[in-house]
Amino acid sequence: MAKTVTINAHDGGSFSAYVAGDQNVSKGGPGILVIQEIFGINEVMRDICDDLAAQGYVALCPDLFWRQEPGVDITDKTKEHWDKAFALFGGFNVDLGIADLKSSLSALRQLTGGKVGTVGYCLGGKLAFLMAARSDVDAAVSYYGVGLADHTGEVANIKKPLLMHVATEDKFVPKDQQAKVKAAVAGNSNVTLHEYQGNDHAFARVGGEHYDQAAAYAANTRTANFFKSHLS
């Protein structure tokens, strides 16, 4: 059961979110806040939500580009879409994005009444990392987050479990940045980091250029077990 809901922003205005899962069945059960890549709430994100719903979660994916252009739904298949995605990424305000995610987290808690985790990919991977540091989310998963080297000072604020999936050959995250992040999280027992040797960015994006079935299966299995452990 999937639908669209409206979420009120902290500073006025509102934005939409895709929701999958039966809230009636799951009342008091767990929810997962799904954080988009740079392509908006597209089929890939909706499929992730639907898959989480099939696992018994209520999954909510908010439209984080609404302040620039509501309803973005593009792919990674054309140069035109990539250009638009990078333009939206360039104009994205991280702090406002976190504020919108906190509003979304609150809305999801009201829908479910249970524990709530978050999972994000690419831009969403960065935001999932920051939600672990800046919000009361119960557990967080970051897939190949970008720009994390600029936020290592926030690692000490991570008080709940965070699972990180890092592609060693990520074209958007240089090796020195990977090393900086790895060293920073090593001292926080709440953080578990897995490296996927030889894999590039977005190795878990089904249908993507760098999709790797084995690596995606490993990461997704770890994610499933992680959420089962921390959101039950």
From TrEMBL:
Which InterPro entries does this chain map to? AB_hydrolase_fold, Dienelactn_hydro, Dienelactone_hydrolase-like
Q: Which residues belong to any copy of the Dienelactone hydrolase domain?
A: 15-230
Which domain of life, per UniProt?
Bacteria
Gene3D superfamilies recorded for this chain? alpha/beta hydrolase (3.40.50.1820)
Residues annotated as transmembrane: none
Kinase as UniProt keyword: no
Q: Which UniProt keywords apply?
A: Hydrolase
Q: Does the keyword Hydrolase apply?
A: yes
Pfam families per the record?
Answer: DLH (PF01738)
- Its Gene Ontology molecular function terms? hydrolase activity
The identity of this protein, by name, is Dienelactone hydrolase family protein
**Species this protein is from:** Ferrovibrio terrae
